[in-house]
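How it folds:
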Amino acid sequence: MAIRVLLVDDQPLLRTGFRMILEAEQDIAVVGEAGDGLQALDQVRALQPDVVLMDIRMPRMDGVEATRQISGPGKDGPAKVLVLTTFDLDEYVVEALRAGASGFLLKDAPANELVQAIRVVAGGEAMLAPSITRRLLDKYADHLPSGEEPVPDTLHTLTDREVEVLKLVARGLSNAEIAADLFVSETTVKTHVGHVLTKLGLRDRVQAAVYAYESGLVRPGAQ
């Protein structure tokens, strides 16, 4: 079945461009559009999309609040939110991730990256591109822990290997890349990631990466 996508952006021209790109793919169907967060909520309820391509800055209700109401804490609907941001990295992106977004993508990303991001998010994974993550962390480095703070108690529930995997997830590595780095199978990595998410009470890899930085386990610029 085709991946059902809802386009949410207050610029009609951008929505048209996204629609043209996505409708060229056999496994993706654009089921609707919305010009602000309130319209997006109505469309999600009416159309039941698999993925919502969400702009952040919009009138009436911004993308952060819309994301929170679609996929935030306590929400168990099927829709995944992929946030759109500008090259300068909107200051609300971190809040959108905390609100329940499954990833973020630059508005000027190549068409093939947009299509791949839709597929990744629809498949239950998180879209956490390393290049975007690094710029995001550079922007917010002053607000992140220095690494000298006490380690949260929940982190002690992880095994040494799970901590290794969490650090690599925070760097934006895929399962295949983590497997190559640790010389294990992708299946083993997937199992470790699942254990990390369960033990820490996290929804996906994006939340895991945010947790790793906020807890001080990983520091901006660290390899």
The mean pLDDT is 82.
